[in-house]
Amino acid sequence: MRPVAKALTIAGSDNSGGAGIQADLKTFTAFGVYGMTAITAVTAQNTLGVLGFEEVSLGLIAAQIDSIVSDIGVDAAKTGMLASAPIVALVADKVREHGITNLVVDPVMRAKSGDPLLAEDAQEAVRALLLPRALVVTPNAPEAEALTGRRIETLADMRAAARDLHAMGVRWVVVKGGHLPFEGDAVDVVYNGHEFVELRSPRYPTKHTHGTGCTFSAAIAAGLAKGREPLAAIRRAKEYVSRAIETALAIGHGHGPTNHLVDVHSDW
User: Fold this and answer.
1) Catalytic residue from among 40, 214, 226, 256
2) What digits encode the pLDDT tens for the residues 60-112?
3) Is 196 exposed, middle or buried (0-12, 13-18, 19+ CB in 10 A)?
4) 209 included as an active-site residue
5) What is the mean pLDDT of residues 179-199?
6) Taking CA atoms, which of 24, 50, 116, 239 is between 20 and 30 Å from 15?
């Protein structure tokens, strides 16, 4: 049997299928990567909003991660919804314990509907405990504002926030600009401590963008699992998400999901 790249998502479950572990698994599959999960919380949500969620016990989260690493192995991992400071601390400890170096942190704080998914006191745990363990972090502008305390309105602000996040220990920072009212392209700023790279993609007139952050970070993790260099994985993820938004699915009465089935060659 030929070897296969393996990626682990440590995140919440989105029963509507557009975000969370469901989006991550679809993205891993689109990239030809074997996907595995450690579920941190179970949500009840749809395209209109989050009706509620319950956290998974710390013991069971730990057991999920341990069972995967001890048997199957992890070429790359990503985090999504972590919900609370104790879960953030546990995940950071497990990443350290198991020597997971290809870690993508998507600092999920709110759902597309605006519903909170991360306790306010957990933000400091993300800064202090998880970001120093990350190879890549992928905040949108509001998340970058929360993590840095810096107002972000311009490209210069995005660069400054990227510097701040890199100083927290992350090796590659991607500050996403999709939430910012720039005319023309959606611009993401990438920073590795030495140089800035701007990644641009068209803006599409659609409200169906549920799960874009999960999908983007999962695509980066998939690239890393397949041995790609961080910038190459980030570029490919940007292309994939742009196409997924362009062909987004009109599902539900609110913010529908992106199209995870958009054509991606698994041999990339």
Assistant:
1) 214
2) 999 999 999 999 999 999 999 998 999 999 999 999 999 999 999 999 887 76
3) middle
4) yes
5) 87
6) 239
Write down the architecture of domain 6-246 according to CATH: 3-Layer(aba) Sandwich (3.40)
For the chain, the structural domain boundaries read: 6-246
- In this prediction, residue 242 has a pLDDT band, given cuts at 50, 70 and 90, of confident
DSSP β-bridge partners for residue 8: 36, 77
pTM of the model: 0.94
Query: Within 13 A of 259's CA, how many CA atoms are on the CB side?
Result: 15
- Please return the burial class of 268, using the count of CB atoms within 10 Å of its CB with bins 0-12, 13-18 and 19+: middle
Distance between CA atoms of residues 59 and 18, nearest Å: 27
* C-alpha span between 87 and 268 (Å, rounded): 34
User: Kindly report the CA angle at 137 between 134 and 139, in degrees rounded to 5?
Assistant: 150
The DSSP output letter for 130 is: I
238 labelled catalytic: no
Residue 144 Cα distances to 24, 46, 106, 164, 187, angstroms: 22, 26, 11, 9, 15
Is 112 catalytic? The answer is no
Is 211 tagged catalytic?
A: yes
What band does 182 get if pLDDT is binned at 50, 70 and 90? low
The angle, 0 to 180 degrees and rounded to 10, between the axes of the packed helices 230-246 and 212-225 is: 140
